[in-house]
């Protein structure tokens, strides 16, 4: 079955960077895109960007002003999210989600990674 | 305006029908299909509806979607206690060139 397994919870200080991973299994990794979505406590989900796991095309949300980098390691079936210059407002649950080609649907989600930014 | 607006809450008794709206504009719902996600407390969102009204395999037919112009709706018929969750609409927006989520509607089963 399709699974997206994310890395564990992190605590970071303001100004630091974080690197989260999302390991896919149960399907052909390069046939789909992986999106990253975050959700602050009590807030709506917020789209951050995506990577086409096949051809490597990437698109980022303008909201993050260049702080976001999404990469992949194809042989490891893993996508990564790096967020730099962390602020307390970046405290949130971060999710990866699988996206079928030609759609904006997220048909499978990872379990989420809680990132806490605190001094 | 690049925002999707949902009512914050909806409720019903078991067996009733509940409808949730999601209002957008020409740059998002007016141009693109809408998805709905169900989020149980403490869990990741779950794919519920795509292309306004299509159900992925495994989603009960109690859940249905519809569209009217730049608004969409999610209906839950035969409400069950297990339907108590937050529901989010989502659509691509051509102005922000990104995916938007609605503010979410908390469904309570009385």
Question: Could you walk me through the main structural features you see in this protein, from its secondary elements to its overall organization?
Answer:
The complex is a heterodimer of chains A (119) and B (110). Chain A is 0% helix and 50% strand. Chain A is built from no helices and eleven strands. By secondary structure, chain A is mainly beta. In chain B, 0% of the residues lie in helices and 45% in strands. Chain B is built from no helices and nine strands. The model of chain B has no long low-confidence stretch (mean pLDDT 96). The interface between A and B is medium-sized, with 22 and 23 residues.
**Helical content band of chain B:** under 10%
Instruction: Extract low-pLDDT stretches of chain B.
Output: none
Order of helices and strands of chain A: EEEEEEEEEEE
Fraction in beta strands of chain B? 35-45%
Number of DSSP-assigned strands of chain A:
11
What is the count of helical runs of chain B?
A: 0
H and E string of chain B:
EEEEEEEEE
Parts with pLDDT < 50 across at least 5 consecutive residues of chain A: none
Radius of gyration over C-alpha positions of chain B, nearest whole angstrom = 13 Å
**Biggest contact:** A-B, 22 and 23 residues
Which overall shape of chain B is indicated by the principal axes computed on the Cα atoms?
Answer: globular
Q: What would the average pLDDT of chain B be, to the nearest integer?
A: 96
* Total number of strands of chain B: 9
Separation of the first and last Cα atoms of chain A? 40 Å
The helix content of chain A is: under 10%
Put simply, the count of helices of chain A is 0
What would you call the structural class of chain B? mainly beta
Classify the beta-strand content of chain A into a percent band. Answer: over 45%
